[in-house]
Amino acid sequence: MATAIIIPRDYVYPVATVTSVFWLTTWQMIKVGRARKAANIPYPQVYADKAEAAASPQAQVFNCAQRAHQNTLENLPTVLFSTLILGLKHPVYAASLCGVWTVFRVFYTIGYSTGDPKKRNLFGSAAVNAFSTLGLLLGATYTAVKLVTDSL
């Protein structure tokens, strides 16, 4: 038995916000590259070691920028797939949550990239990111359950 999924016209909004996430990670990658160069941390070294970070403010900034980027990458599968799944039934809600997540991830990156890890919660970004991720996850779960139950 086949189940048809009709993509709503408003699905362009989740697609647009998912695309904005690609730009976010590209911007973060550039920030990390510049910080790596300023700190003179060679490849393939992922982070400056403790001694380097303690001796050089640029190395600490590199570590923080690298961590902000890596943390974003750790969250991407959940955010992207949840946005696209939730968008099948509730595209505006999905796009709104992903858009909020992306904007506050910018604030998170700016704060973290100062070299002071405590500033990563700029404008409450860590909490807003957590709540928007939870909203996406719950919405995607609801959508998946609805799709399954509708096909029975």
Automatic annotation (TrEMBL):
<keyword id="KW-0812">Transmembrane</keyword>
<dbReference type="InterPro" id="IPR050997">
    <property type="entry name" value="MAPEG"/>
</dbReference>
<keyword id="KW-1133">Transmembrane helix</keyword>
<feature type="transmembrane region" description="Helical">
    <location>
        <begin position="12"/>
        <end position="30"/>
    </location>
</feature>
<comment type="pathway">
    <text>Lipid metabolism; arachidonate metabolism.</text>
</comment>
<keyword id="KW-0496">Mitochondrion</keyword>
<dbReference type="GO" id="GO:0005741">
    <property type="term" value="C:mitochondrial outer membrane"/>
</dbReference>
<dbReference type="GO" id="GO:0006629">
    <property type="term" value="P:lipid metabolic process"/>
</dbReference>
<comment type="pathway">
    <text>Lipid metabolism; leukotriene C4 biosynthesis.</text>
</comment>
<dbReference type="GO" id="GO:0005783">
    <property type="term" value="C:endoplasmic reticulum"/>
</dbReference>
<keyword id="KW-0564">Palmitate</keyword>
<keyword id="KW-0456">Lyase</keyword>
<dbReference type="InterPro" id="IPR001129">
    <property type="entry name" value="Membr-assoc_MAPEG"/>
</dbReference>
<dbReference type="GO" id="GO:0005635">
    <property type="term" value="C:nuclear envelope"/>
</dbReference>
<keyword id="KW-0449">Lipoprotein</keyword>
<dbReference type="InterPro" id="IPR023352">
    <property type="entry name" value="MAPEG-like_dom_sf"/>
</dbReference>
<keyword id="KW-0808">Transferase</keyword>
<dbReference type="GO" id="GO:0004364">
    <property type="term" value="F:glutathione transferase activity"/>
</dbReference>
<keyword id="KW-1000">Mitochondrion outer membrane</keyword>
<dbReference type="Pfam" id="PF01124">
    <property type="entry name" value="MAPEG"/>
</dbReference>
<dbReference type="GO" id="GO:0004602">
    <property type="term" value="F:glutathione peroxidase activity"/>
</dbReference>
<protein>
    <recommendedName>
        <fullName>Glutathione S-transferase 3, mitochondrial</fullName>
        <ecNumber>4.4.1.20</ecNumber>
    </recommendedName>
</protein>
<dbReference type="GO" id="GO:0004464">
    <property type="term" value="F:leukotriene-C4 synthase activity"/>
</dbReference>
<keyword id="KW-0472">Membrane</keyword>
<keyword id="KW-0443">Lipid metabolism</keyword>
<keyword id="KW-0560">Oxidoreductase</keyword>
<feature type="transmembrane region" description="Helical">
    <location>
        <begin position="122"/>
        <end position="145"/>
    </location>
</feature>
